[in-house]
Amino acid sequence: MSLLDSLNADMIKAMKARDKTTLSVVRMIKAALQNEQIKVGHDLTAQEELGVVDRELKQRKESLEDFEKAHRDDLVTGVKAEIAIVEKYLPAQMSDAEVKTTVQDTIAEVGATGKSDFGKVMKALMPKVKGKADGAKVNAMVKELLG
Description:
Layout lengths: L2 H15 L2 H21 L5 H24 L3 H15 L8 H15 L7 H12 L5 H12 L1
Helix pairs in contact: 1-2, 2-3, 2-4, 3-4, 5-6, 5-7, 6-7
């Protein structure tokens, strides 16, 4: 089942269950996918769809941080619920150990020796972990292992 089919099925379920939060989030993801498809001018690949959903998750996480800093507990709960719904459409996240192993393998693969090779490592690494690991966590891990 494609992501769009899954979104349509979940949208119908949410409508029947009168679940406004899920319905709203699913509609936003669907709109983001359609906008991206118009932008690129072709049907999205699975990787491109994953990138759009990942971007939606990142936006919500940034909002969550902002709301927590502003002590807006009323908004924090809603955004946490949205994050849980968006995460449902992403593949399972890699554990810290899996990320570390992948980073170490990639460093060995590209022959990186120091911080000057950071860009080379990230270029080779990101396609492997896209959607499966948080970019900030991967970035920090690469810096740690190269430093």
